[in-house]
Amino acid sequence: MGVWMYEDGDYGGSENYLKSALSQETTDAERVRAHKYLAFILCAERREQECRREFREALATSTPNFELTPAEQGHPSWGPVFRSVSQPPPEVDRKRSRYKTILRFAQL
């Protein structure tokens, strides 16, 4: 119902319904979907911090990892926000790279 409200353009009603649904007992798939649409609403309303939180919740709940469709990834409001929370920060990648290099030398 909350997704239908979103698709009909009733973002306020959708946000309230989805938040209410998350307080109920739901499956992981339903929780991921609710967090995803909440993130869309929040990003569209330029509530970026809340949008990030919802995407993080979707990623934490999802198994296997939650992904957006190519069309959703390209959206100017939430695409960049999703990419920023779904990819490790560059310094983490550098640390992993250094660690792998150290391990390679240790094996020689």
Structure, explained:
By secondary structure, the protein is mainly alpha-helical. The chain has one domain: Serine Threonine Protein Phosphatase 5, Tetratricopeptide repeat (Alpha Horseshoe). The protein is built from 7 helices and no strands. Helix 2 packs antiparallel against helix 3 (28-44), helix 3 runs antiparallel to helix 4 and helix 4 (48-61) packs across helix 6. The protein is globular.
Outline of this structure?
This protein is mainly α and 108 residues long. The chain has helices at residues 2-7, 11-22, 28-44, 48-61, 70-73, 79-86, 90-107.
Strand content: under 5%
Number of domains: 1
Radius of gyration: 17 Å
Q: How many E strands?
A: 0
- Ranges with pLDDT <50 over ≥5 residues? none
- Assign a percent range to the helix content: over 70%
The count of helical stretches stands at 7
Give the ordered list of helices and strands. Answer: HHHHHHH
Biggest pleated-sheet summary: none
> What structural category arises from helix and sheet content?
mainly alpha
Shape: globular
Under the CATH scheme, the architecture is: Alpha Horseshoe
CATH domain class:
Mainly Alpha
Fold-level CATH name: Serine Threonine Protein Phosphatase 5, Tetratricopeptide repeat
Terminal-residue CA separation = 60 Å
Return the average pLDDT rounded to an integer. 86
